[in-house]
Amino acid sequence: MIDRTGVTTAPTAGNAVARLLRRFLPDPTEDESVAEETIELQINGQRQSADTDPDRPLLDVLREDFHLTGTKFGCGEGECGACTVLVDGVPTRSCITSVGEVGGTEVQTIEGLAQAGQLHGVQQAFLDHQAMQCGYCVPGHIMTAVALAKERPNASRDEIVAEMSQHICRCCNYENILAAVQQAVQQS
Amino acid sequence: MARPHRRPIPDLNPPSSDPLIDRSPSNDDLSIDDEPLEVERYELREPPRYRFAANRREFTQVVGAGLLITVSARTAHAQRRGRSARREELLSQRFQLGDDGIVTVLTSKVSVGQGARTQLSQAAAEELGLPIDRIRLVMADTQRCPDDGGTAGSRTTPSTVPRVRNAAAALRGLLHQFAAEQFDLNTEQVTYSEGVFRGGDQQQLSLSELARDEALQERLNAAPSEDASIVPIDRWRVLGTSVDKVDGPAVVTGQTKYPSDIQLPGMLYGKVLRPTSYGATLASVDLTPAQQLDDVVVVRDGDFIGCAAPTSWRAAKARDAIAATCQWKAGSSFPSDQLFDRLKRSGDSQGDRGRDVWGNPAEGTAKAKQTVRGEYEIAYVQHAPMEPRAAVAQWQDDQLTVWTGTQQPARVHGELCQTFRLSPQQARVIVPDTGGGFGGKHTGEAAVEAARLAKAAGRPVSLRWTRDEEFTWAYFRPAGVITVHAGLDAAGDLCLWEFTNYNSGGSAIETPYKVPHGSTRFVRCDAPLRQGSYRALASTANTFARESAMDELAARSDADPLDFRLRHLADGRLKDVLKAAADAFHWPRRVAETGQGEKPNQRGVGLACGTEKGSFVAACAEVEIRDGELHVVEVCQAFECGAVHNPRNLRAQQVGALMMGLGGALTESIEFSEGKITNPSFSSYRVPRLSDLPKLNIVQLNRPDLPSVGAGETPIIAIAPAVANALFAATGTRCRSMPLRLS
């Protein structure tokens, strides 16, 4: 629709003509990638299913469909770690992982860590060391540290540094993050 | 001679000729604080990015009351600027007493990681004699909060904390008086402890009971009395202690709702079509492919083209479908390898205006037995906050509410009113705690874009920039060229200091060192990129050039860099931090250990110091060249900002700034070519990571005898020159660029 001021809008309700046309005309934008599928997965211990384009990033599905906004967008290329979740226990960049790839898996997000109001040891360690400034990167850091503490309870300082350097904290609170992860690893 | 006089530095962005643009100075905080400390000496000022057409209904309004609408946009500015009315602020506007005994404090400041929420909670808890968990802060809601200015220029500590403390002390006094009246006693007969007033053994009134008293509510509609006395520093219980971040539990459980996390019923997600390069204009476009998609709202309004859909994935598909049809006409551009030549040439073409001269530079030149000339280059850098620009906009009839991450809620409110032709009462900006700012979120791009899409959609729209958008379309810390010409007299003392900054800014341009003759000058240049505030502004660049040149001078006169500086500094706070850092670092021993002054052996130590916004910093660094790479092995940094409010948060600010400064010193540089940023990602623009953390020795000089000033910025300024000077000690080669490059 174009009104007299030149503003063009196509609100949902106003798309009837276009939709009608599409029944008869091939749509150049319609390809297989737009087709929706039902994807079954476990999120934080609960069975869930998403009817969605399987190419959508897991990050978007968690945030937009399941309202789990603790997992953050930081870069969209798997470089900063803000979007890290555990897929079957493995730290995974949800911004570059499609939801189709994780069908049938167990996904754990920051919201699923605390049990019965009790913080996970890694969450407590981040609190104890005040390993947060703006805090936006913290959920991603914590998820990687959870896997590290579980998989490598004897991780050395160098191993911790190597692992956690896959993340970015732009506030550069690295001194406290290192202390927190060291505590978490030692306690596990 | 230290120079007390500070010449006002002209804005980098000249006032627009557009009549709709506010031309008054934007140093909001200055106007309300009546004090000499400078705030943001340059601020991004530009015409609105979008000119939206009035829709038919709006058009009618404009015809009917055009003057009114124009005036009301200006009124928004007038209200913001006329904050001298602050003294008439009512206690009821600053505080709300809850019947649960919680005191809510309202402020326009935002929390972007610097700790303002915790610090202001400490301030209120201190004066109200309450534990910190009985204080709640409502921050940065333009409809509810008194205007304490934007969050910039390290102003929260010296300006907002005292204001909140004064108001809280006045509230406590008023409550005390009111309780005494209820008890029919004198105020001296009434005691107070942790939210409970007691009159003798029988009578008591708690804050939750007081909160229900309507007569008290009336009394709160009063300005705070001027004679309220605040808690003296030797009786602080909450201030001065390492209180945990009040939002810590929400952060570690993922419950904090940042602007990009706000979700409203029926909300859509938005995406905006961006030009393919700076200055590119749209020659042709076909919206049809996007309009044919189900559930997608497509908006074209002037230069703005955007889509909104139930998922951001679908909105991006729609936007990409439009992008595929676009023909762009490229703008003119030049590549970043010509940047410094271009800046300098455009600056020199303006002649010699704006030079601030003291003594007689000709005499200084004549006296100089040795001179040093240096030209320093400072690259463009990006704030790159972890949360990119984001906003959620909701229209309810003609009322607009926007949740967005900005350091300047009042300014964004004005931007929205202006862009959408709203009266101030029709727009509300709310800033949830935000994922980083660093001076980079003073503008309202995402707010305007989300609001435009939401208006077309008739539903709330969330819009979050991608990292690529943030790296390309946000603004940058200005690049610059700095020239230094300095001379030493026969005794090896500074006799001449000529310092010119092209484009990067005037903050900390004055030398703190004693020198009888000299000049400083800041030159505006034609800048190729959008540029604005950044943590510590140009102090980092100017301190880098000055402290590098001081080292060159020390070397020229065979003096130890520490001795040379101390000799040229008057006694005072800067000298104190320099000595403290050098002592803690064991400077003389480290110089000897690294073999300084002998043949460069790939290890070296360096130091630097500086002051900005009333606080003082000095850093010592040890570096090592390994496998052809520069490694910062250890840093000792001393910092002084008056009386410390929260030692642990201060340390986090000190270390965070120092580490961010290492990024600008070692790796960060925005590159561009053909009107495009060529490294617009974290994989191509390297910011500091945990592996870059050197061994740290952090020194805080607490000065309970001095007023507290901000600490979020100044600790960034000394690290780059300290590392540059250490690099020279290690290699014998002077590098005069930020980031440093091994030759």
Please provide a written account of the structure.
The complex is a heterodimer of chains A (188) and B (743). Chain A has a five-stranded mixed β-sheet with strand order 3-2-6-4-5, sandwiched between helices. Chain A has two domains: 75 residues, Ubiquitin-like (UB roll) (Roll), CATH 3.10.20; 67 residues, DNA polymerase, domain 1, CATH 1.10.150. In chain A, strand 4 and strand 5 form a beta hairpin. The longest helix of chain A is centred in the last third of the chain and has 14 residues. Chain A has 188 residues and is an alpha+beta fold. In chain A, helix 4 runs parallel beside helix 6. The radius of gyration of chain A is 21 Å and the shape is globular. Chain A has six helices and six strands; from the N terminus they run E-H-E-E-H-E-E-E-H-H-H-H. Chain B is α+β, with helices and mostly antiparallel strands. Among the domains of chain B are: 165 residues, 2-Layer Sandwich (Aldehyde Oxidoreductase, domain 4), CATH 3.30.365; 296 residues, Aldehyde Oxidoreductase, domain 4 (2-Layer Sandwich), CATH 3.30.365. Chain B contains 21 helices and 27 strands. Chain B has a seven-stranded mixed β-sheet, with helices on both faces. In chain B, strand 2, helix 4 and strand 3 form a beta-alpha-beta unit. The N terminus of chain B is likely disordered. Classes of the chains: A alpha+beta (188), B alpha+beta (743). Chains A and B meet through strand 1, helix 1, helix 2, helix 3 and helix 4 of A and helix 8, helix 9, strand 9, helix 10 and helix 20 of B. Strand 1 of chain A pairs antiparallel with strand 9 of chain B, so a sheet runs across the interface.
